[in-house]
Amino acid sequence: MLLREVNSRDAEGLVRLIKQVESESQYMLFEAGERNLETEHQAKRIEAMKKEGNSTIFVAEENADLIGYLIVIGGYAKRNKHSVYLVIGILSQYRGLGIGTKLFEELEKWAMVHQIHRLELSVVAHNEAGIRLYRKMGFEIEGTKRHSLVINGEYVDEYYMSKLLGS
């Protein structure tokens, strides 16, 4: 398995991967088919992220196929450029194999180079596997977004989680 930062040539594979992850997981923000991701737009977004300096996407690749991603969205204002919001997705058949851990390890190396101090994400309170991974990687629950999402007709809570790097 190869872990690396995405490039614009990956746009088509990344779009396909995101759509598949959204169709397989009950915990992603977007449901299967809910949004229209286009390769050209994704390629432009990848290039824009590279220029921002505090945003990127890491991908896990197996036999030239993308199997997982970690999207890193940096703050836009001077006061929050040190902070990034994270979205992770891994194809169902590859979950539980340590890919999430490896993606977070790559993120932390990158974050140190790019002067990122705060990592943050939100996770559905019922997503026990996700919460286990984030805690393992040093994230802590900061608070609860009560009834923030509707999944299968039921209001569900999300946890805000974060990890501080360096001092």
Determine and state the CATH class.
Answer: Alpha Beta
| Fraction in helix | 25-40%
Radius of gyration: 15 Å
Main sheet properties: 7 strands, mixed
Number of helical segments? 4
Properties at a glance:
single chain, 167 residues, alpha+beta, Aminopeptidase, seven-stranded mixed β-sheet, 4 helices
Question: What's a quick, concise take on this entry?
Answer:
The chain is α+β, with helices and mostly antiparallel strands.
Structure, explained:
The protein is α+β, with helices and mostly antiparallel strands. It has a single domain, classed as Aminopeptidase (3-Layer(aba) Sandwich). The chain is built from four helices and seven strands; from the N terminus they run E-H-H-E-E-E-H-E-H-E-E. It has a seven-stranded mixed beta sheet with strand order 1-2-3-4-5-7-6, sandwiched between helices. Strand 6 and strand 7 form a beta hairpin. It is globular and about 40 Å long.
Can you lay out the helices and strands and say which pair or pack?
Blueprint: E1 2-5, H1 11-24, H2 39-52, E2 56-62, E3 65-74, E4 83-90, H3 99-113, E5 118-124, H4 128-136, E6 140-151, E7 154-164
Parallel strand pairs: 4-5
Antiparallel strand pairs: 1-2, 2-3, 3-4, 5-7, 6-7
Helix pairs in contact: 1-2
